[in-house]
Amino acid sequence: MSNGAILNADVLVCGGGLAGTMAAVAAARHGANVLLVERYGFLGGNATAGAVAQFNSWQTANGRPVIAGLASEVVERLGRYGAAGEHQTFVMSTGHKMDRVEYAPEILKLVLDDMITEAGVRPLLHANLLRVSSANRRIEAVEVLTKSGVMTINPRVLIDSSGDLDALHRAGARFLELEENESLQPATMMFRFGPIDFDRFHALAPAELAALARKGFESGELARAALHASRDPFSDDGWFNISRLAIDATDAMALGRAEIEGRRQAWRAAGYLKAHVPGCERGQLRSFATQVGVRETRRIEGDHVLSAEDLLQPVQLDDAIAAGAYPIDIHPAAGGGLDYRGLGEDHAYQIPYHSLIPVSFNNALVAGRGISATHTALAAIRVMTISMAVGQAAGTAAAMAARAVASAASVRGVPVGELRATLLRDGAVLR
Ligand SMILES: Cc1cc2nc3c(=O)[nH]c(=O)nc-3n(C[C@H](O)[C@H](O)[C@H](O)COP(=O)(O)OP(=O)(O)OC[C@H]3O[C@@H](n4cnc5c(N)ncnc54)[C@H](O)[C@@H]3O)c2cc1C
Fold it and tell me: What are the per-10-residue average pLDDT scores of the chain (431 residues)?
């Protein structure tokens, strides 16, 4: 393949994070010819490059499952490699209950490789989105910069799952703005620290851990008042989420500075762990995530803008394509705490298909953390379980849209009843 190559795809998925990878797998399993573009040499996004290391919120507080389908398959496949922990419920420092599955980010790369390979997805790795052209509300061509030079892809349907929605941004789509009193959630440099004596570490009561975290924040050693670790399934190491970097990650200069500052904050936090936190005395900082994890950047303006009210007072939606039960969890750009609004015992909400459809285009969908949602609603639906469920729905819908004659592939023409029935057959939970 050389500079100037032109490729065709029924479905072009831009961004191989968890949302994009699930979208690509779902579309390919439903018969589409799928190309998956990713800037790194591996898939997973925040889940691997960002080393987030735990999938949160599979169920309501009283244990009703709200996530399954491809997301459960990912965990099952991680389990076959020995790389996933048990499904567990724990009490957070806020006093709320939360469930999670811890996993090894490096092995998740292998699982995602397996899934796209078996589904027949064509990966185009080490490829950066460059230019996107459109006409008559349709994406016509996507140019990517690769090792072989610039390559052009002509998709029937495009899914932008690049997190920052670089493809739709380059295409000139409309985006939602922050309200006056809102700011982007900060980014975080995850770091691996160990060995930890987890018997002692986990014996700390939530209030003790919270007090230690507060002390570290007040002394300036911790950038946020948190000391929460995801355990590596293979060792006595943990991944810590402590740094706090208030940036717009679509600003190239700010992103570079945040990588450097993130490593500095992580180093200081590791020193605090070793000096003050029971169970961490023998530990040391072992590695940084490949890049700072990014919680929030662009949000698309879609046919439906999902709001906090939609999540807090849910009604049954005719176009629900996924469900979730993760609470509203805003990491403020300043200060050490969280703005956390827990949900009731059996409280789940739905994600509507129309929040995946950009108002600006007829042959494009969004999957993952860029879907059409207010800043507050995004703070709930951004987690990886929901990103995977939404990705599966986006891929399934895109394959259905791509089946129409080439000139007519329209995401608004997808029969939503059929889409929902297909997702249910494929194991998804929609309420
Ligand atoms: C620090 C942190 C902690 C978190 N903690 C949790 C947690 O405990 N539990 C949980 O479930 N969720 C957690 N989340 C949320 C969750 O990780 C993300 O919201 C989720 O992974 C988003 O997935 P995504 O696929 O939409 O986007 P991303 O993971 O951002 O994936 C986007 C993909 O697109 C690629 N890409 C971007 N731009 C381009 C381009 N121009 N060209 C080509 N490729 C491109 C990227 O490399 C990446 O692979 C956390 C997030 C962060 C940042």
Answer: 85 98 99 98 98 97 96 98 95 81 98 98 98 97 97 98 98 97 96 98 92 96 93 97 96 98 98 98 98 98 97 93 96 80 92 98 98 98 98 98 83 98 98 95
Contacts of 56 (CB under 8 A, 6+ apart): 98, 99, 100, 326, 383, 384, 385
**pLDDT single digits (tens) 275-288:** 999 999 999 999 99
Strands (E), 147-248: 149-160, 191-194, 229-231, 238-240
* CATH number of 6-182+296-425, picked from 3.50.50.60, 3.40.50.150, 3.90.110.10, 3.40.640.10: 3.50.50.60
Ligand 1 centre distance from Cα of residue 199 (Å):
31
**pLDDT given for residue 407 in this prediction:** 67
Mutation probe of ligand 1 site: the residue of 126, 384, 390, 392 with most atoms within 8 A of C-beta: 384
Cβ of 39 below 6 Å from ligand 1: yes
Has this prediction a pTM greater than 0.85?
yes
Ligand 1 pocket check: which of 14, 38, 46, 328 to mutate, most ligand atoms within 8 Å of Cβ?
A: 46
Side-chain-facing half-sphere of 413: CA atoms under 13 Å: 15
Domain with CATH 3.50.50.60 in the chain: 6-182+296-425
Distance 295 CA to ligand 1 centre (A): 7
Half-sphere exposure of residue 106, counting CA atoms within 13 Å on the CB side? 8
Question: Is the Cβ atom of 395 under 6 angstroms away from ligand 1?
Answer: no
Testing ligand 1's pocket by substitution, the residue of 12, 25, 40, 52 carrying the most ligand atoms inside 8 A of its CB is 52
Classify the phi-psi angles of 51: left when phi > 0, otherwise alpha if psi is within -120 to 50, otherwise beta: left
Using CA of residue 381, residue 87, residue 240, residue 60, what is the dihedral sign?
Answer: positive
Ligand 1 centroid distance, CA of 264 (Å): 22
